[in-house]
Design a protein that fits this description.
This protein has 6 helices and 2 strands; from the N terminus they run αααβααβα. It is mainly α and 116 residues long.
Length: 116
């Protein structure tokens, strides 16, 4: 693994921070462990919302939180598994990105459709 990290540190196409590169390698190992334990990563992350997308009803973009109880719990569990750079805010960004939460404001033209 040391040679791979050295090669990555010389790659000008990525952020060349030894700690972040080591974290990416370590997090990949945690990811594989989660896949083995749960059968797939999908099953693992959806447990934090009990398998059902959270439907929020925010009036304005500034109402959307940066973290939630679910993202706090995900972050704590990933840290317990020795993942790095997995704070609650980044976990909530993942939850939003994969559709585990509908954080569109109620004025969004597809808000109602996304609730289905």
């Amino acid at each position: 693994m040391g040679r791979t990290i050295a090669e990555l540190l010389s790659n000008s196409g990525i952020v060349r921070n030894r700690i972040k590169i080591q974290a990416a390698v370590s997090n990949a190992q945690v990811f594989l462990g989660i896949q083995q334990e749960f059968g797939c990563f999908d099953r693992y992350i959806w447990q934090f919302v009990k398998g059902v997308p959270v439907q929020n009803h925010w009036a304005a973009p500034q109402d959307v939180p940066a973290t939630t109880t679910e993202s706090d719990l995900m972050s704590l569990d990933l840290k317990r598994r020795r993942s790095k750079f997995v704070g609650s805010t980044i976990c909530y960004a993942l939850i939003q990105a994969v559709g585990m939460v509908n954080d569109r404001t109620i004025q969004y033209f597809r808000h109602h459709e996304l609730r289905k």
